[in-house]
Amino acid sequence: MAESEATAERMTVRTHKKRDRNLVTLTGAAAIIALTASFAISAFNSRRRKSKNKGIEGSTVRINISPNEILKLANRIIAKSKEVHDSIASVPIDKVSYANVIAPLADLEAEQFPLIQTCVIPKLVSTSEDARKASIEAERRIDAHIATCSKREDVYRVVKAFSVKGEWMNSEAKHYVKCLVTEFERNGLNLTITKREEAQRLRAQIDELSLRYVQNLNDDSTFVLFSETELVGLPPEYLKSLDKAEDGKFKVTMKSHHVQALLELCKVGTTRKIVATAYGKRCGEVNLSVLERLVDLRHKYARLFGYSNYADYAVDLRMAKTSSKVFEFLEDISASLTDTASRELTMLKDLKTKEEGELPFGIEDLQYYVKRAEEKQFDLDFGALKQYFPVDLVLSGIFKIVQDLFGLRFQVIAEAEVWHNDVSVISVFDLKSAELLGYFYLDLYKREGKYGHTCVLALQNCALSSNGARKVTLVPVALLISQLKKDIGGCPSLLRFSEVVSLFHEFGHVVQHICNRACFARFSGLRVDPDFVEIPALVLENWCYESLSLKLISGFHQDITKPINDEICKSLKRWRYFFSALKIKQEILYCLFDQIIHSVDNVDIVELFKHLHPKVMLGLPKLEGVNPASCFPRSVIGYEAACYSRIWSEVFAADLFTSKFRSDLLNHNVGMQFRDKVLSPGGTKDPIEILSDFLGREPSTQAFLDSRADYGL
User: pLDDT by residue (tens digit) across 226-283?
Assistant: First the structure.
């Protein structure tokens, strides 16, 4: 995550008879059964057809290039970029204009991004190990070049001269120039030579320490030995996954998947406490000293740029704007949830008393007794629920919902070139005007060598003519990667409910990318404020918990005309926020810890956590000996001083859904307003302005708080 901006963005979508066969044009809920029967079978099975190496119109992304071609393309990208930057740097200060300074940079970004992604895609999805290796090397070269360009003082002087001149074509161009200047200045180009060299030295130290911290955690080999009776409650498959010591005891490692499963399922309280404590002690004093040094260096780095602390430096360019605003936000949310969280904690303590007697309730008991409370409250068998979510049916339902809401039409391109037979390519049109809006690739199934997480990548950003005309020069192209299990022996691929939610979320990013209409590629698709980027996807997640939409995406795999019943729909909706106040409190604890250490000098990190834990967690103390530096790697690399952003996004997403969508889930007019006012602007406007324009008022935390208050109790 601590790489270049371009890299970060990659990671965080014809005959008349053929057209009829591959077209999905649906309105009205009654069409879903016919849709899923035909679309799921014909359209998505097209992924298995042999590719005929057909490119997609309007895309400059290249697929399946050889390892040698990947490296050659990377070198051409770098050479062209250097040529353009050299040309801009040569413009005399008194001759600067939009045409000779800004337009070339904007055009270069738009043209090169899909070429860069051409080099990067293979490392994530290629079936060739050589191609993956070449892709990694190409990305390294390109990132190094981008970093060099961002520090070119000669280019900065010319861009700065134009910004001072004040020759603006429109507000978006003004915003673009401001971003260019800010990026240069965040790299120290407005500092004195001495300060700039100091900033570079500090940055190198910060990067080295961040990597050391993460490596220490990755190399940690701590394990705890338990007998089978000490692991009561854990399923046989969990025990089978564990190595054994010579005395026959099971080795529980401190890998997160081992720890989380044990804390949730193990009936033995002492075992939970031992494991939670061992997990919190990882790397001990080593990483504590690394974190203390890191925080000190970050403060020094921020002060070189005129900030009083690192938190203000980190938050300045985000939606929250200031660290004080983040503190206010977190403390307000925490205080508002205190009463509900207190009732939740009382219920959990009662459960522990009934099961384990008069033993004190500790933080290590939280996950286990929330799980027990869920079992008592809900009759939800998530294993059996899978049978109602065949992947093709879920995808068809998602497509239907998105089409009806946002006025889109999807068309599978059966003969498009792809890197694997499982991959589908889908074009997206405006339903009313038939305008081509973009494309996305679906690469859904597990295979060897493929990137191991579910995500959406921008392959080509939307870009309109840089001369001010609203003429599309590049259409958006996205890639959705997932890790679903393929159908085997005629049995359809069935999704866990968590995978259904994940698909909805990521498809929200696809829609967000495709529906953007920014003039500049820099503000297109997912190139938006990091506090804002998750909001559209989080909004779309809500359809996973509403009866109307749940019935559209579900159907028993042996008879898809039978969706999940009303009782299960109601249970899923109640289960969603069951005991969520305590969970959010725990998140806020770490977010506050993150903000404080990055806002205040010389903080005793251990004492801070010891004080903060019971204050936020309703009197529950931290475990003895736990080192907060080991518990919270996000504060070290990737999200330092920005861990609040997840809760921030959830709060605003809740307001959007509750205020505009909840009462009429498939309201096309509201969906089109969302598309036009929230998705279309991308990064061209201030996020608060975007949300306020859609809501008709400033955003509020109330919907989020209401949804969590006493939910299911």
Answer: 999 999 999 999 999 999 999 999 999 998 889 999 999 999 999 999 999 999 999 8
| Cα angle 623-628-629, degrees, rounded to a multiple of 5 | 150
* Range name among 15-19, 140-144, 202-206 with the lowest pLDDT average: 15-19
CA atoms of 426 and 58, how far apart (whole Å): 13
**Residues across the chain:** 713
Which residues have a Cβ under 8 Å from the Cβ of 487 and sit 6 or more positions away?
A: 391, 493
Tell me which DSSP letter residue 559 carries.
B
Beta-carbon count within 10 A of 447 CB: 12
404-454 tens-digit pLDDT:
999 999 999 988 999 999 999 999 999 999 999 999 999 999 999 999 999
pLDDT of residue 41: 33
**pLDDT of 296-337, one tens digit each?**
999 999 999 999 999 999 999 999 999 999 999 999 999 999
Q: Which of 472, 485, 484, 556 lies closest to 514, judged by CA?
A: 472
Distance CA 689, CA 78 (A): 37
- Taking only the tens place, the pLDDT of each residue in 511-540 is 999 999 888 999 998 999 999 999 999 999
Closest CA to 265 of 372, 360, 345: 372
What per-residue string of b and e applies to 268-303 under the rule 16 or more CB within 10 Å gives b?
bbebbbbbbbbbbbbbeebbbebbbebbebbbebbe
Would you give the DSSP letter of residue 658?
I
CA distance 560 to 555: 4
- Distance set, CA 395 to CA 37, 391, 398, 504, 552 (Å): 12, 6, 5, 9, 10
Q: Which residues are annotated as catalytic? A: 506
Positive or negative, the Cα torsion across 530, 533, 535, 538?
negative
The CA-based angle 185-142-422, given to 5 degrees, is 125
Which tokens is 293 given? 């040094």
Q: What is the pTM of this model?
A: 0.91
Tokens of 208: 């080295």
DSSP character at residue 416:
B
Between CA 619 and CA 76 the distance in angstroms is: 60
Task: Write the DSSP symbol of residue 491.
Answer: B
Neighbouring-strand partners of residue 440: 426, 478
CA distance 479 to 455: 8
In contact, 174 and 168? CB cutoff 8 Å: yes
**Among the listed residues 648, 549, 547, the one whose alpha carbon sits nearest the alpha carbon of residue 591:** 648
